[in-house]
């Protein structure tokens, strides 16, 4: 089964592409970010998508996340929640057996860098709480942080650039440590120095693969062990981000 994530950069602009993608891959769970739409503005074709329970959590023209679970995984209606640190409609989670899956859109930090660091710290706390409760955790989405320099094309590396700063990278590493989370994409493709998921939308940067890795599937141990692949669909869609799709054999506690 597949668990997928995509920052769509506007759900209304990407409606047909999302439908094409979901219809083709039929993921068990899909996570979307940067909806830029209130729930009532999300196209009905997606809100009423056949075979899925879905949650649409957004604000007009800003932020927002979507999270959907195939109904054969949860015969009863899914119970979607928003952790207590949610702000600007940036996180939704659902529990499937002993596994918690979240769609996450970390603040960019350009307007309020401190808010980004606070959000990462709260995610760290949440991951630690899930770990203490012996829950498996899979966090998917746009984390707006590059883990290391190798996650940024050499032409885009700047030590003072938001998304590359030492303190936010350190906060991201603390999140991974607190939740015992694996960066699945890097774990399964350790030698790829061109593993990018976002490209500046100018000068054919995407065609040249001059990008950053900002979108992740992060997984706790048992779930990570069941993930056999994690691919970036770099050629798909017109968002400035690409979908990331993980193939998982089973969900813990299902």
Give me some keywords for this one.
six-stranded mixed sheet, alpha+beta, 23% helix, 27% strand, 254 residues
3D architecture notes:
The protein is 23% helix and 27% strand. Strand 7 (99-105), helix 3 (113-132) and strand 8 form a beta-alpha-beta unit. It is built from six helices and twelve strands. The protein has a single domain (2-248), classed as Endonuclease/exonuclease/phosphatase (Deoxyribonuclease I, Chain A, 4-Layer Sandwich), CATH 3.60.10. The two termini are 13 Å apart. The protein is globular. By secondary structure, it is an alpha+beta fold. The strands form two sheets. The chain has a six-stranded mixed β-sheet. It has a six-stranded mixed β-sheet with strand order 5-6-7-8-10-9.
* CATH T-level topology: Deoxyribonuclease I, Chain A
Order of the strands making up the biggest sheet: 3-4-2-1-12-11
Secondary structure: helix percent: 10-25%
Please report the total strand number as a whole number.
Answer: 12
Structural class: alpha+beta
Beta fraction of the residues?
Answer: 25-35%
Instruction: Tell me what the CATH architecture is.
Output: 4-Layer Sandwich
Q: In the CATH hierarchy, what is the class?
A: Alpha Beta
Our count of domains comes out at 1
What's the Cα radius of gyration?
Answer: 17 Å
Q: How confident is the prediction overall: mean pLDDT?
A: 96
- What's the helix-strand series? EHEHEEEEEHEHEHEHEE
So how many helices?
6
Shape: globular
Major beta sheet summary: 6 strands, mixed
